[in-house]
Amino acid sequence: MTTVAAYAAPSAKAPLERTTIERRAVREFDVLIDIRFAGICHSDIHQAREGWGEAIFPMVPGHEIAGVVSEVGPGVTRFAVGDRVGVGCMVDSCRECDNCKAGLEQYCVKGNVGTYNALDKDGEPTYGGYAEKIVVDENYVVRIPEGLKLDEAAPLLCAGITTYSPLKHWNAGPGKKVAILGMGGLGHMGVKIAHALGAEVTVLSQSLRKKDDGLKLGAEHYYATSDPKTFEELQGTFDLILSTVSAPLNLDQFLSLLKTDGAFVNVGAPEEPVALNLFSVIAGRKTLAGSGIGGIQETQEMLDFCAAHGFGAEIELINADQINDAYERVLASDVRYRFVIDTATI
User: Fold this and answer.
1) What does pLDDT average to over the chain?
2) Cα 163 from Cα 305, distance rounded (Å)
3) Helix, strand, or coil (residue 206)
4) 272 in helix, strand or coil?
5) Beta strands in 133-210 (DSSP E)
6) How many other β-carbons are positioned within 10 Å of the β-carbon of residue 28?
7) 8 alpha carbon, distance to own chain's centre
8) Which pLDDT band, with edges at 50, 70 and 90, does 270 fall under?
9) pLDDT tens digits, residue range 152-210?
10) Distance separating alpha carbons of residues 183 and 186, to the nearest angstrom
């Protein structure tokens, strides 16, 4: 066991505070990672404040982890000391179900083991990336290409893969009109990735406040959803709408923007249920879908893709003692576009 410094929420809705946690000793197939940077995801806030249901406390959030390997177990073959690596939203799965065997560990039939707010196979709580170090099985670690800065790579482990996976699955690319709904931590990565895939990209945002940023990141068009004319003008326009919004939406309104056979895919997860008139999908044979993160192989593919296209996340680097302020700013949409913690300050 190794004692490391971390920032944890002691209870639901309580401010995060500096503490220490225990990391397990390095096992045969484990990798010990010195965490250099950890992104702040909106889902960290949902879970630390029990917005998605009962949680495990104390909680050390953080599933956008970038660091350097400092020790490997004797059976490790994929990584060596000094390698630049990342850890995303899961640290284990059953490895036996059809989904795991197909590289879809995120949809493990028995449930994957979350990087934090979960219990591992020994029944011990998992603690995330707001910490100095983490121990992870090598099969759930990915390599960060040299072309990516570690701080800009950290958010790719959630925001990057959460947008890349559905954009690939629903065939975003040349000849396709793709809308990214929401221009935040996930949305800005959706714009970059959809553009790099060759799609014609439109941003749908509450206001035009971030229009210049959206166009700079690769969008051809930018519309305000607060303007009723947007829904008149864009009716029947898109092959794919990727919603990164974690607030309840008027789904019928947005489904009207799809072409026949278009798909509206949710990656944002509101805490409240949403209403739907089923005629919104029946008319036009439209699809209302959701998508989680990605499997380990696909996450590696995404990192390599981002490196090949020369981009990471747009970040604001903060010290650990700014985490609570950062949470409030995320809720106020006051970040461009992802807070990343410099873990040297923990």
Assistant:
1) 97
2) 13
3) coil
4) coil
5) 133-137, 142-143, 177-181, 200-205
6) 11
7) 20
8) confident
9) 999 999 999 999 999 999 999 999 999 999 999 999 999 999 999 999 999 999 999 99
10) 7
Place of tokens 């008319």: 283
Q: For 82, left (φ over 0), alpha (ψ -120 to 50), or beta?
A: left
Sign of the torsion angle spanned by Cα atoms 58, 314, 210, 207: negative
Nearest to residue 32, comparing CAs of 4, 66, 70, 63?
70
| pLDDT tens track for 31-48 | 999 999 999 999 999 999
Please name which of 163, 86, 193, 174 lies closest in space to residue 129, comparing C-alpha atoms. 86
Token duo for residue 114: 């979350």
Asked if residues 57 and 9 have their Cβ atoms less than 8 Å apart, the reply is: yes
pTM for this model (two decimals): 0.96
What backbone phi and psi angles, to 5 degrees, belong to 54? Answer: -60, 140
Structure-block tokens of residue 2: 């190794």
Q: Which two tokens stand for residue 281?
A: 């999908």
Quick one: the chain helix, strand, coil %, rounded to 5?
30, 30, 45
CA–chain centroid gap for 314, Å, is 14
- Coil, strand or helix at 67: strand
Residues 166 and 160 sit within 8 Å (Cβ to Cβ): no
What are residue 120's phi and psi, to 5 degrees? -80, -175
At 97, the amino acid letter reads: C
Q: Which two tokens stand for residue 258?
A: 């799809």
Q: What is the CA radius of gyration of the chain?
A: 20
56-to-41, 94, 125, 268 alpha-carbon distances in Å: 18, 21, 8, 22
Say how many C-beta atoms besides its own lie within 10 A of residue 24's C-beta: 14
Q: Residue 25: left (phi > 0), alpha (psi -120 to 50), or beta?
A: beta
CB 322 within 8 A of CB 340: no
Q: Any idea which residue has 């949710």 for tokens?
A: 266
Per-residue pLDDT for 143 more than 90? yes
Helix or strand run (H / E) with residue 215: helix 211-217
